[in-house]
Amino acid sequence: MTSSQASAQAATRRVLLAAALAGLAASCAPAIAPVGGPYAPGVDHRKAAVDGIEVGNRLVAAGEYELALDAFTRAALDQGMTPEVLTGLGTANLGLGRLGQSERQLRRAVQDAPEWPEAWNNLGVVLMEQGKTGEAQQIFRKAYALDNGESDSIRDNLRLALAKSENSANTAGQNEDYQLVRRSGSEYRIRKIP
Question: Which fold has domain 52-165+177-192?
Answer without folding.
Answer: 1.25.40
